[in-house]
Design brief:
Length: 256
């Protein structure tokens, strides 16, 4: 049985001492692919280097994370776009984040819109980060709804109403990670009632947000198996069926 981690920062310095071991453990756990998002201009080279180190296993994305959007975002995106090749499987990690600050609210919206246009121009799916900004995100996506190539709403932690709103974008799936396994999470009730099996993928967001029973430790792709097992239990299906469903969704959205 194999399954896919659709979001892991495998290029992160947290793995500099044991990256090969991390990948080996992921393979052993059943992870057949890892999708690796960029977050800013310097990370693009690191993401490519890591993915080329594990060809056919780690797949790169290109994008500017909303928390990295500053006053110079136009120049940053111009440089980033020069680095694009068809090797990138998606535009990500991009989106909006007003959790800590709204200082660059306007800039985040403009940078996100430009990267939506990249996805449409290149016919690449979006890997979208959104925190405390769903209304603004949805309004912007609706502007391009007919042309959107699809993607994933990364790190979904919302309720049934929020899920329904996101699932109106019919080429997108919800990405669910370690939060599903947390004791106080409402996702075990929300997901089966609001999200069909053909609209969900699993992820770690490693090295962050490790699932139970690894909570508090550095997260890594091997731990996505705990998310998969918890999700299968929530939906009342076998782990094998859940793996097959999420793998099919990844293939449909990302083409891998």
């Amino acid at each position: 049985m194999n399954f896919i981690d659709t979001h892991a920062h495998l290029d992160g310095e947290e793995y500099n001492d044991d990256r090969d071991d991390v990948v080996a453990r992921a393979r052993e756990a059943g992870v057949s692919a890892i999708l690796v998002p960029a977050i800013h201009l310097p990370s693009i080279t690191a993401v490519l280097d890591v993915c080329r180190r594990y060809p056919g296993y780690a797949y790169p994305m290109i994008g500017l994370h909303p928390e990295e959007v500053k006053a110079d975002w136009r120049e940053v995106l111009a440089e980033m776009k020069k680095l694009y090749t068809d090797e990138f499987i998606a535009v990500g990690e991009v989106g909006l984040d007003y959790y800590w600050s709204r200082e660059f609210e306007k800039e985040q919206l403009e940078a996100f819109e430009e990267q939506i246009q990249w996805a449409i121009e290149w016919n690449k799916p979006l890997d979208i980060h959104c925190r405390k900004a769903q209304n603004e995100m949805v309004k912007l996506l609706r502007k391009y709804e007919k042309d959107l190539p699809g993607g994933v709403f990364h790190c979904f932690t919302g309720n049934e109403i929020e899920a329904a709103e996101l699932l109106q974008f019919d080429k997108f799936a919800l990405g669910v990670g370690g939060v599903l396994t947390f004791k106080k999470s409402h996702l075990p009730e929300v997901l089966p009632s609001a999200v069909p099996l053909d609209r969900i993928v699993i992820e770690t967001d490693a090295p962050y947000m490790a699932p139970v029973p690894m909570r508090g430790k550095r997260n890594e792709s091997a731990y996505v198996r705990h998310v998969l097992e918890c999700m299968a239990e929530c939906y009342g299906v076998s782990v094998e069926d859940m793996a097959e469903a999420t793998n099919n969704n990844v293939k449909r959205i990302f083409g891998i």
